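User: My collaborator sent over this chain with a note saying "see what the structure looks like." That's all I know about it. Can you take a look?
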Amino acid sequence: MAWALREGLAPAGVGLIIAGALTVFHLAGGDIQAALITAVSTALLVWRPNLPVVIVLGLGAVLMCGSYLLQ
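Assistant: Without extra context I'll predict from the sequence alone. Here is the result:
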């Protein structure tokens, strides 16, 4: 029963991750750096869903700040 519930809700979880990624991309300005960081973060969360989201968002924020400082 629990397995069926988990497998049934998996597509909803992936959809929420992608929706969150699109929101972050839009709020980040929509440039190429934001697209790359958002794509990598989304792929990482879909590949390893047990990773803490705060760590992935923090790494993305560090990369984004670093890319803006290097410009």
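A starting point for your reply to your collaborator: The chain is about 85% helix and 0% strand.
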